[in-house]
Design goal:
The structure holds 2 protein chains of 2 kinds.
Chain A (H helix, E strand, L loop, with lengths): L2 E12 L7 E9 L3 E5 L6 H8 L2 H4 L3 E9 L2 E2 L8 H4 E4 L12 H11 L4 H15 L14 H13 L5 E5 L7 H17 L3 E5 L3 H4 L5 E6 L2 E7 H6 L1 H6 L6 H11 L11 H17 L2 H5 L5
Parallel strand pairs in A: 3-8, 3-9, 6-7, 7-8
Antiparallel strand pairs in A: 1-2, 1-4, 4-5, 9-10
Chain B lengths: L6 E9 L5 E10 L4 E5 L6 H8 L7 E6 L2 E2 L5 H4 L3 E4 L12 H11 L4 H15 L15 H13 L5 E5 L7 H18 L2 E5 L3 H7 L2 E6 L2 E7 H5 L2 H6 L6 H8 L12 H12 L1
The chains are: A alpha/beta, B alpha/beta.
């Protein structure tokens, strides 16, 4: 695999601001990988997303240093509008991306701009309507549906364009837990089927973490930590010091490890944690703690 | 207790003008000083119920009685002094050109004399920790956390006993969420306000709420102390809600001796220690 996104010593300062929003970021993202970006508000996550989408520097005034390559080509070398065919972005505020009078038109708009044939548009419309479960909403104005439905429409509109790289900026912030899970299920399917490169910015890590290959943490505009997902959470103290709160089951297992009670991999899901606990706890009960330490889950 | 609860909801039904029935047969009572979370799927009726509680919506049938006043026959001016509602998006609520006018809007609207208005604004700003240097600032140029504080201050200035906060942590990072919730907890514990939060954030519910009202399809599915409600995932599933991960883990490991309705990571660790001792 080769890097589809290469970021080299990249910095950006908005013209209206004193400080750099991003400072000396170097990062490579492999084609087909699923990357989670976390960090407190104001750490530069959205600025990074806008930079990968080419909206920075295209639509914003500011000072840029370093380079950012998509498919081997610097973003500024792309003709206006061409980069966005490769990189699709779902904004955290879905209304900011709506332009049409009905949900259906909203979904079709992007595909028309790509110059797709009518049968192709129809096919993708059906696929995406089904995948994101928007059937009953197609004829409604996108600004009249509920906040959670708006987020699904925004996601579907970008999905329909099948960009090689998709960036989602807090795609589920307005959704209830089950709808949130449904969106992540959709992302999980895409990860398995399409081999898109998917980058998700999220505060809520429970659903995100199990899907990711890689995690990136930004803090005050700098790259604080970047690693393969399991390795990323090994240094949990650094994360906690910077106000990133890992999913409950990881925090729980980490505390057991710190107390010297458990050795083994960090679980990514409740199911994994439950399996580990079912193997580990009965073993500890019937043996001395030192024997139990060596007990690993398979 | 023979005393009447501060807020009573009796057989409340509410239908929107287009005929959509949003609430069906709701019965609830709230005392003073409670810390409550309303949970439920998007569209379940949480926000509609909240708007009935502060009299913004009048029941289609049934009654909402606040402080002895029936919302059907009480003016909004009287209601806003009793039940305040903070919008999910503070930008839907903030419309003045500076923070002072924003916070003063409510007290002026209920026609308090300007001296009282000043006192109320200063008090509310002090409670939310809004420094006076912000008074002349335009609320729109403040970060969201501060905009939310201005929004809460503008409600506090009316000194309502009950404050409903719609999605207080949406769009906030973990640290900001804790700050907002600690602040609401302070209003509850130190000043005795009843706080009702509407939220999808189950860790926040587990950490802060003492009572949970689960709403599904316009009905109350469950109502009780937080640990009790979370110990029955079957009920919660009907509201399309899952408890936080640690509660799910305790549930999945109930056969090992873990307590259903475990709410916090530390509680789980304590149980491990007890089980391995």
């Amino acid at each position: 695999m080769s890097a589809i996104i290469e970021i080299k010593h990249y910095s950006w300062r908005y013209l209206s601001q004193q400080n750099f929003a991003l400072e000396d970021i170097s990062l490579e993202i492999e084609e087909g990988s699923f990357v989670g970006i976390i960090g407190p508000n104001g750490s530069g996550k959205t600025t990074l997303a806008l930079s990968i989408d080419g909206l920075i520097p295209g639509h914003y005034h500011g000072v840029k240093k370093g380079e950012l390559y998509i498919l081997g080509k610097e973003v500024e070398q792309y003709e206006t509008g061409l980069l966005q065919q490769t990189v699709g972005m779902v904004f955290s505020d879905p209304e900011s991306q709506f332009t049409s009078m009905t949900v259906e038109d909203e979904l079709v708009f992007g595909m028309e701009n790509l110059g797709l044939s009518i049968p192709e548009i129809r096919e993708r419309l059906e696929w995406v309507t089904d995948l994101v479960d928007l059937g009953p909403l197609l004829m409604k104005p996108p600004y009249e549906v509920s906040g959670g439905q708006k987020q699904r429409v925004a996601l579907a509109a970008v999905l329909a364009m099948m960009p090689r790289i998709m960036i989602l900026d807090e795609p589920t912030s307005m959704l209830d837990p089950i709808s949130r899970k449904r969106v992540f299920d959709v992302l999980g399917k895409l990860r398995a089927d399409q081999r898109n490169t998917i980058i998700v910015i999220e505060h809520s890590l429970e659903n995100l973490v199990p899907l990711t290959d890689h995690m990136v943490m930004l803090h005050n505009g700098t790259l604080l930590r970047e690693a393969e997902t399991h390795a990323f959470f090994e240094d949990m103290n650094t994360l906690l010091e910077h106000d990133a709160f890992p999913p409950d089951v990881m925090t729980f297992t980490h505390k057991l490890m710190e107390a010297g009670l458990y050795k083994g991999p960090l679980p990514l899901t409740v199911e994994e944690a439950s399996r580990q606990l079912h193997q580990w706890l009965p073993a500890v009960k019937t043996s001395t703690p030192s024997e139990a330490e060596g007990h690993q889950h398979d | 207790m023979t005393e009447q609860p501060f807020l009573q909801v009796r057989d409340l039904n509410y239908s929107y003008p287009d005929g959509t029935q949003a609430l069906r047969g709701i019965n609830l009572t709230f005392g003073l000083g409670e810390m409550v979370a309303f949970i439920g799927q998007n569209g379940s009726g949480k926000t509609t119920l909240s708007k009935c509680l502060n009299g913004l919506f009048k029941p289609t049938s049934g009654d909402v009685i606040v402080d002895g006043l029936n919302t059907k026959s009480t003016s909004i001016v009287q209601m806003v002094r009793r039940v305040g509602y903070v919008f999910q998006n503070p930008d839907h609520q903030l419309f003045n050109n500076n923070c002072w006018d924003e916070i003063a809007y409510g007290p002026r609207n209920i026609q308090l004399p300007e001296d009282d208005v000043r006192e109320r604004v200063e008090e509310a700003a002090h409670i939310v920790g809004l420094h006076e240097s912000y008074f002349t600032e335009h609320p729109f140029f403040l970060p969201k956390g501060l905009r939310q504080r201005v929004a809460i201050a503008s409600i506090l200035a009316l000194r309502p006993k009950v404050i409903i906060v719609d999605e207080p942590t949406t769009g906030q990072d973990s640290k900001q969420s804790i700050e907002i919730m600690d602040f609401l907890q302070k209003l509850n514990q130190e000043l005795g306000h009843t706080i009702i939060i509407i939220t999808h954030d189950m860790p926040i519910v587990a950490d802060y709420a003492e009572r949970v009202v689960a709403i599904g399809l316009g009905q109350v599915i469950d109502d009780g102390p937080t640990a009790e409600v979370f110990s029955q995932p079957e009920n919660l599933a009907r509201t399309f809600i899952e408890p936080r991960q640690i509660t799910q883990l305790a549930h999945a490991c109930h056969d090992l001796g873990f307590k259903r309705g475990t709410l916090k990571v530390q509680e789980m660790i304590d149980q491990v220690n007890a089980l391995t001792a």
